[in-house]
TrEMBL record:
GO biological process, one term: DNA transposition
Ranges where the Transposase IS116/IS110/IS902 C-terminal domain occurs: 125-155
Species assigned in the record: Neomoorella stamsii
Location of the Transposase IS110-like N-terminal domain: 7-79
Pfam families on file: DEDD_Tnp_IS110, Transposase_20
GO molecular-function terms, A-Z: DNA binding; transposase activity
The name this protein goes by in its record: Transposase IS116/IS110/IS902 family protein
InterPro entries: Transp_IS110-like_N, Transpos_IS110, Transposase_20
Length: 158
């Protein structure tokens, strides 16, 4: 039975913090790489080097999906030819779960936008007649301003 290398990545907008463990849970190493293409390339090099040192035939990579900062790194790891010799199920699962999460939130956002548009109809306003301002932005402006009559010149045409 082969050995597995576990790689955990804490994603940041500028820097990714990496911790590598062996299959017994022992700490192998920790380091940081920039969250860009050179950082991804350095990460792949380190993963391959550590896997070769431990004679690992599987590499399991886990990362948090923070905003969109994880996307390019996930793609780089998935497409890295240097990692093709190792079991890459973890990268595929991480990517699939992240895409499912994005789709879920997109669906939720559409539902919320529909509710906002419905609720906005009950408020007398003309903001959404301005090109580029839809129901969500109109609701945002109304929520921020509050009762317009509290302003001394709320009926001023300019």
């Amino acid at each position: 039975m082969g050995k597995t290398l576990f790689v955990g990545i804490d994603i940041g907008s500028d820097t990714n913090v990496v911790r590598i463990l062996d299959d017994t849970g022992e700490d192998v190493c920790g380091f940081s790489v920039s969250n860009d293409l050179p950082g991804a390339e350095r990460l792949v090099e380190r993963i391959v080097a550590e896997a070769e040192l431990l004679d690992a035939d599987k590499v399991k990579i886990g990362m948090e999906a923070t905003n969109l900062y994880w996307w390019h790194l996930s793609q780089a790891l998935h497409e890295a030819p240097e990692l093709s010799a190792f079991d890459r199920d973890a990268v595929d699962v991480t990517l699939a779960m992240s895409l499912e999460t994005i789709r879920f939130f997109e669906t939720q956002q559409k539902k919320i936008d529909q509710v906002i548009a419905k609720e906005l109809k009950a408020i007398p306003q003309t903001l959404d007649t301005v090109p580029g301002i839809g129901p969500v932005y109109s609701a945002d402006i109304i929520a921020e301003i509050g009762d317009i009559s509290r302003f001394k010149n709320h009926k001023c045409p300019y």
